[in-house]
Amino acid sequence: MHRRMAEPYKIKSVELLNVLNDQEREQALIAGGYNTFLIKSEDVYIDLLTDSGTSAMSDLQWAALQRGDEAYAGSKSWFRLEQAVKEVYGYRHVIPTHQGRGAENLLSQLKIHPGNYVPGNMYFTTTRAHQELNGGTFVDIVIDEAHDPMIDLPFKGNVDLNKLENLIHKVGADQIPYVSIAVTVNLAGGQPVSMGNLREVHALCHMHDIPVMLDATRCVENAYFIKEREPGYEYMLVKDILKKMMSYSDGCTMSGKKDCLVNIGGFLAMNDDDLYTRARELVVLYEGMPSYGGMAGRDMEAMAQGIYEAIDDHYIKHRIHQVRYLGNQLLDAGVPIVRPIGGHAVFLDARQFLPHLRQEEFPAQSLAAALYLDSGVRSMERGIVSAGRNKITGENNRPKLELVRLTIPRRVYTDNHMDVVADSVISLYEKRNHISGLGMVYEPPTLRFFNARFEPLSANGKLI
Ligand code: F0G
Questions:
Q1: How far is CA 70 from the centre of its chain?
Q2: Which of 110, 324, 342, 411 is the most buried (most CB within 10 A)?
Q3: Is 453 helix (H, G, I), strand (E, B) or coil?
C-alpha cells in the first residue's frame, strides 16, 4: 500500500488570506497592468512568485530572535552563525552579507579582473551581473540537455566537462579566476548536480589550479536529489551528503533566503586564508563589520537555527515531495511542464501551453496573468519579457525557454494549497484556446519585467 506523507510541522500561528471574488481579481489584475509583480500581496491568495525570503520560520527561530545580540562589533549572534556555517557546510572561513548578491559582489570584486572568463552551469541574473560588472565574461558550461525542457535526466544541472576543458585550453587557466557551480540550477528548473560530476569538476579544476566556488543557495535540495538518485548515497543522511558535496569546492556564495529558511541574510565562505583576509577588508565597505555584514543580530540567530533545521531528513523529504506533488498532478493531466520536476518550483512551458500565441504576444506573461485571474495564484514570467532587449540592436532577446514559474515557499503552504493550484492550472489548460496574448503598453528601459504594463490583444479586451 502506498502510504501518504503529511507536513512534518504543525501550525502554531496563522496568517489570514484575502479571498477575492472574480470581479475583484479582475480589477486587481487591470490595476497591476497584467503584471504579477505589480499586484499587491494582499490581493493574492496563494503566492508562488518566489521561494526567496518567503519561508515560514519555526518557533525555535522566532525564539532565537529574542537572543539577538545587536552589538556593533563581536556580536554573540555572529559567532553562533559562523559556527553553524562551519559545522554544517565545512568551510574554514565565513563572511556575512545581507543576502546572496552581497556575497556575489564581494567574490566577483575580489577574484575577477577585466578580460577574465567565469564558467558556470547556466547563469543566474545577479551572479552574472556582478561577474560582468567586474569585467568578466560568463561562459555556460552546463550540459546541452539543461536547455531542453522535455529531456528527463536525473542530474540535468551537471557540468559538461568537455566544455570546461575546452575553455581552459582556449583561454588558459590563468584567465579563469574560479568556476561557479550552482547546486541546484534555478533557471534550468531547479535541476541538481551529481556528486560524481562535482568530484570530476573539482579534480579537473585542481589540476589547473582553478578554485571551485559553489552557488549554495539551494544546496540542501541538491543533496536530497543525490540521496534519491545517485547509487551509493541512498542510506546516507542528507547532512553528510551535503558536507561531502561542499568538500568538492573551495568556497561558496549563499543566499540564506532559500535553504537557510530565513527572510533575509547570506554569506560568502571559503577555505583560502588570503581570500578571507581580503574579504574581511572589502565587506566593511559594502555590507558592514565582518561580524554582522548587513544583518541584525536577530537575523543571524534565525539563520543559524535555520541552517540546522534545513538539514533534517524529514523536512527536506517533504519539501521535495510537495513540489513534486504539484508537478505530478499537472503531468498526469497532460499539462506541459519542465522535466524532471526540480527542487523549488514547477515551471509551466508556455510555448506548448499556448501554441496559438507568437512569442511577441508574451505567452508566459499571458499565462501568469490568466492564472491570477482564475484563482488568485501568483506566479512569475521567465521568458521573453524577462530576457529584455539586445543592447546593440534594440531587438527583443528571444529565449528558447518561455516559462511560468510556480515557486513553492518553504513550510508555508499545505499540500491542499497545491491541489488548488493544480486545479486552476488544469482548468486553464482545458480552455487554453481562449487565452489571449498581451501587448506591452509601458516598457521600462532596464529590468523591464518588474514594472512593464500590458493589455490583452483580444477584440473584446478580455484576457480569457
Ligand atoms: N543565486 C541563485 C541561484 C538565486 O536563485 C538567487 C536569488 C541568488 C543567487 C541571489 O540571492 O536574492 O539573496 O540576493 N533568487 C531569487 C529568485 C531572487 O526568485 O529566484 P539574493
A1: 30
A2: 342
A3: strand
* 103 contacts 254 by C-beta, under 8 angstroms: yes
* 215 C-alpha to ligand 1 centroid (Å): 10
Q: For residue range 52-62, what is the model confidence (pLDDT) as tens digits?
A: 999 999 999 99
CA of 52 to the centre of ligand 1 (A): 7
Q: How confident is the model at residue 327 (pLDDT cuts 50, 70, 90)?
A: very high
Cα dihedral across residues 132, 137, 142, 146: positive or negative: positive
Provide residues with CB under 6 Å of ligand 1: 50, 52, 99-101, 124, 126-127, 182, 186, 215, 217, 255, 257, 266
Atom of ligand 1 lying closest to residue 185 CA:
3
Question: Catalytic residue numbers?
Answer: 72, 124-125, 215, 258, 382, 449
What pTM, to 2 d.p., does this model score?
0.96
- What structural domains does the chain harbor? 22-51+313-456 (3.90.1150.10), 59-310 (3.40.640.10)
Q: Label residue 9 by pLDDT band (50, 70, 90).
A: very high
